[in-house]
């Protein structure tokens, strides 16, 4: 029977239905993964994700080949918003206020899942990680805010974008430790004070301690 102008070939309809099913499975897996990772942290069992989504582990891996790929999907929207926020802050705040406000948001975002700060820091040594692209965009956004603040003389010139990314994620990691959770803003304040212009203490020799004089430990 000839296909009319309004009829859809069976193969095209089948492909469309398959794509719709795949999209629904993808969204359902993400919804379940968000709950499991919120409960267990970034080291959450992928078997638990598949079991609670009522799919096979192979189906999960077809959508998200690695744990990092799953995390990237969970974090993509929030990270994109952080990149946009950098531009908004740069347009509405002084350079140093834009940088400090953005770093605080970065530290808060890095703490959304337990263990995430460490996972983000690990991308510095793993450019092939699925998280690396998103983290690279964050570092570039923060690096531009840093350059703006350095240009106006508000931030010491020896600090790099990599430095501030590492320091913000380090504060987020420290805040995961029970007693320090309530001191996150204080730790960020110490970080911001350290960014202010002044003698670059980090380039001066550190005072020697007892261990320096004792030599290496004996086995």
TrEMBL record:
Database matches in SUPFAM superfamilies: Homeodomain-like, Tetracyclin repressor-like, C-terminal domain
Ranges where the HTH tetR-type domain occurs: 23-82
Record-given protein name: Transcriptional regulator, TetR family
Alphabetized Pfam families for the sequence: TetR_C_43 (PF21597), TetR_N (PF00440)
GO MF annotation terms: DNA-binding transcription factor activity; transcription cis-regulatory region binding
Keywords, alphabetical: DNA-binding, Transcription, Transcription regulation
Residue span of region Disordered: 1-21, 198-219
Ranges of biased composition (kind: Basic and acidic residues): 8-21, 209-219
Keyword Membrane listed: no
InterPro entries in UniProt: Homeodomain-like_sf, HTH-type_TetR-like_transc_reg, HTH_TetR, Tet_transcr_reg_TetR-rel_C_sf, TetR_SbtR-like_C
DNA-binding region: 45-64
């Amino acid at each position: 029977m000839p296909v009319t102008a309004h009829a859809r070939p069976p193969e095209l309809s089948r492909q469309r239905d398959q794509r719709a099913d795949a999209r629904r499975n993808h969204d359902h897996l993400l919804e379940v993964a968000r709950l499991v990772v919120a409960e267990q942290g970034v080291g959450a069992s992928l078997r638990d994700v598949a079991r609670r989504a009522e799919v096979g582990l192979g189906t999960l891996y077809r959508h998200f080949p690695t744990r990092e790929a799953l995390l990237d999907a969970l974090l993509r929207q929030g990270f994109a918003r952080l990149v946009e926020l950098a531009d908004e802050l740069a347009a509405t705040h002084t350079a140093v206020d834009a940088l400090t406000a953005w770093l605080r948001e970065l530290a808060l975002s890095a703490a959304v899942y337990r263990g995430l700060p460490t996972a983000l820091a690990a991308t510095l040594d793993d450019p092939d990680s699925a998280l690396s692209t998103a983290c690279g965009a964050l570092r570039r956004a923060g690096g531009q805010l840093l350059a703006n603040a350095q240009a106006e003389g508000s931030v010491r010139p020896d600090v790099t974008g990599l430095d501030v990314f590492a320091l913000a994620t380090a504060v987020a990691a420290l805040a995961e430790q029970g007693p320090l959770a309530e001191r996150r803003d204080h730790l960020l304040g110490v970080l911001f004070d350290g960014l202010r212009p002044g003698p670059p203490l980090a380039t001066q020799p550190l005072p020697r301690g007892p261990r320096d004089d004792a030599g290496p430990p004996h086995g």
